[in-house]
Design brief:
mainly alpha; 5 helices; single chain; about 130 residues; flat
Length: about 130
């Protein structure tokens, strides 16, 4: 549900990519168990999210549908269609995951912004 823009690699980075892809397969092994993953997912779902953060996500996504209602009438010409409710959900879930990784049992506004707030754009049809 997130779009992360990644530029082209440098020539050195691309060389390493080509080397890894065309060379011998790297030995891989499990980094966690299925049970541990399920426990982490359950723990993330229990993190506290203040309703004000959910309101923030909803308002941000709603602004993609009707920017004129948010004092941004000139932005409508750049948007073909706004983000769906899945974008609001993804922002909150990404914020929760980031708060968990950061070792907290509650979500901060920075978690929502860092985890998903800046990535709501993929759900928006932009006019270029």
């Amino acid at each position: 549900m997130m779009k992360i823009l990644i530029g082209y690699p440098s020539e050195e980075e691309e060389f390493v990519i080509v080397q890894r892809v065309t060379g011998d397969a790297a030995a891989v092994g499990p980094v966690t168990s299925v049970d541990a993953l399920l426990e982490m997912q359950a723990a993330v779902r229990k993190l506290y999210v203040d309703p004000s953060l959910m309101i923030y996500a909803v308002k941000l996504v709603a602004a993609t549908r009707a920017p004129e209602k948010c004092g941004l009438p000139d932005h409508q010409r750049f948007i073909q269609f706004g983000a769906s409710p899945r974008a609001s959900i993804a922002m909150i879930e990404a914020g929760r995951a980031l708060a968990y990784i950061r070792g907290r049992d509650y979500v901060l506004p920075a978690d929502v912004v860092d985890g998903g707030g800046r990535r709501a754009a993929p759900s928006v049809g932009a006019v270029l």
